[in-house]
Design a protein that fits this description.
Blueprint lengths: L9 E6 L3 E6 L10 H16 L5 E6 L4 E3 L4 H5 L7 E2 L3 E2 L11 E5 L2 E3 H8 L3 E5 L3 E3 L13 H8 L2 H10 L3 E2 H6 L5 E3 L4 H13 L3 H12 L6 H16 L2 H11 L10
Parallel strand pairs: 2-3, 3-7, 4-8, 7-9, 8-10, 9-12
Antiparallel strand pairs: 1-2, 5-6, 10-11
Helix pairs in contact: 4-5, 8-9
């Protein structure tokens, strides 16, 4: 399905009409992020956000041994470090990007540094049994400045995140799963299939309801119950007046699958 090529740093494929598979495609350098990859990923994320037909996106890798090695140090050494960020998307054009639709990271092998931060910028994670996760920046006199320092504590206990950040020591998929960081752990060759299966289950639901629900869930650790109650009510008010809300009720009563129109 994926054909590596120097001129195709990021590939986009639409699966089943409404699932976007975005593949990091610099396998020779473990998908290290360069300026060209950054610009392409930024553009692809915006395209997915603007396309009403796409309901779920998957971020995958063309390298079975490494999801993404983070920043391409050859680019940094040449003074191109600032080109590895975009104004709208942050690192790799992705970590800070507006993503109202759910994203699934499909990772295999080493998931370190900036590559780990790309995965943490997704909503769900499917990993191979041989996946290893780490934030080793302190070993190079750096910090995980693309979201890792505040996203990691949201998916693993505080003490574990502090250990990982302060020591730079990685954890394997088994431990990451036991800590609740991973949704599914499967064989390497099954990672993308499992991610598509998960995406399909999401895409079968009403897209507006999914997006509005995500707005609240994503903020659950950042606001008080009172604030979250208001956000939940706003999401409910919005979805209740959609055509899809009526369709969901009619489909249930008529014992058939719903046909979502996205509004």
């Amino acid at each position: 399905m994926i054909t590596p090529g120097a001129d195709n740093e990021v590939l986009l494929e639409i699966v089943e009409g409404n699932i976007a598979v975005v593949t990091l495609n610099r396998p020779a350098v473990r998908n290290a992020v360069n300026a060209a990859m950054t610009l392409k990923l930024d553009a692809i994320v915006k395209r997915i956000e603007a396309d009403d037909e796409i309901r779920v996106a998957i971020l995958a890798s063309s390298n079975a041994r490494a999801f993404c090695a983070g920043a391409d140090l050859a680019e940094v050494a040449q003074g191109n470090g600032p080109k590895l960020r975009t104004i709208d998307g942050g690192f790799a054009g992705f970590t800070d990007a507006l993503k109202s639709k759910p994203w699934i990271a499909a990772v295999r092998g080493f998931v370190f540094a900036g590559g780990f931060e790309l995965a943490l910028a997704c909503d769900m994670l499917v990993a191979s049994t041989d996946a290893v996760f780490g934030v080793p920046e302190v070993r190079r006199g750096l910090v995980a400045g693309a979201g890792g320092l505040y996203r990691l504590p949201r998916v693993v206990p505080r003490s574990i995140s502090i250990e990982m950040v302060a020591t730079g020591e990685p954890i394997d998929a088994a431990r990451a799963a036991s800590l609740g960081m991973i949704n599914h752990v499967v064989a390497s060759e099954a990672v993308l299939d499992k991610a598509v299966e998960l995406a399909r289950m999401i895409a079968n639901n009403a897209p507006v309801a999914v997006r509005e629900s995500l707005k609240v869930v994503r903020r659950a650790t950042e606001h008080s119950d009172d604030e979250l109650r208001k956000l939940s009510q706003a999401a409910s008010d919005l979805t209740m007046v959609t055509d899809d809300c009526k369709e969901g009720a009619n489909a249930f009563l008529e014992k058939r699958a719903p046909h979502w129109v996205g509004h």
